[in-house]
Each structure stands twice: as structure tokens, then as C-alpha cells.
Amino acid sequence: GCGSGRDSLTFLEMGYDVTALDGSEEMCSLASIHTDLDILHMQYDDLDFNEVFDGIWACASLVHLEKSKLPGIINKISKALKPGGIFYMSVHKGNFEGTRNQRFFAEYTKNELKDIFEAFPELDIEDIWVTEDVRLKQGGQEWLNLLVKKRY
Q1: Residue 127, class by beta-carbon neighbours within 10 Å (0-12 exposed, 13-18 middle, 19+ buried)?
Q2: How far is CA 61 from CA 12, 43, 49, 122, in A?
Q3: Apex CA 91: angle with CA 119 and CA 31, to 5°?
Q4: Tens digit of each residue's pLDDT (9 = 90 or more) over 40-49
Q5: What is the pLDDT of residue 139?
Q6: What is the chain's alpha carbon radius of gyration, rounded to the nearest angstrom?
Q7: Could you tell me whether strands 142-150 and 81-93 are parallel, antiparallel, or unpaired per DSSP bridges?
Q8: b vs e for 46-82, b when ≥16 Cβ sit within 10 Å of the residue's Cβ?
Q9: Is 11 helix (H, G, I), strand (E, B) or coil?
């Protein structure tokens, strides 16, 4: 989900051809205002692309997906990537899955992510690293960042 369009706008300003989507109609409207793009209103399950994208950016969006559904969505993302394509995702680091502040969150460990991606031999994990949430001053949420490349 592109959310407000912040990252989509950054990619546009860098000269990339951007296809932005979000599951929330309100976020699609907001992102359209910020980016001047037509934003696709889609849920993760609606992804149906075949080797269309050179890269897929899922920054803090898959964190709202139930853990049991992540492998199916990774499969759809893999199909959507061109050979040699790059996939980036970030999720909360930890062991929690459930609702906080009226929103669903799933946290992962490095080993959980590695285990999930073992089911996709066409995807090579290039790097996994941890970052702190820059929005929170004290005791912020840690994020797991994953960079994956689809084999040729």
C-alpha cells in the first residue's frame, strides 16, 4: 500500500515510472493528490501481474497482513516481478500478531522471514537489516528490512 504517496512521490522525482496502489480508498485519494497519479485501489489478494515490475516497494505495508497470508502474497509479488527484479519490504521486528490501537499488526523475526522465503527458490535474499522507527523518540519500534532479488 502506497499510503499517502510519500514514497511514490520520491520515486517519481527520481525519474522512475511508478504504479502505486493501496487498499484504502481514502489513502488512494490522498496519494493521488500528492503524486498526481491514478492510484490503483486494490487489496493484496487482488494482485495479479505477470512479470511487469522491475521493483516492488512495500515499506511498512505488509505489517498489516496476517502472518498466514504472507506466503500467498509473496507468491503474487514474485510473479509480478520481472527476472532480475528487486523487492523491498519492511515489517515490525518482534513476536506479536494482533490488534493495537484498532489496527492489525504482525511482527517477525529474521528467522521467520528467512523460513518464509525458503519456499520461493526464485527469490534470493540479498540483505536483512534492522532499523529504528525514526518517528518515535524513546523505545521506538524496530523494523526488519528485507531486500530480495528475483533470479533470471
Answers
A1: exposed
A2: 19, 11, 18, 23
A3: 115
A4: 999 999 999 9
A5: 59
A6: 15
A7: antiparallel
A8: ebeeeeebeebbbbbbbbebeeeebeebbeebbebbe
A9: helix
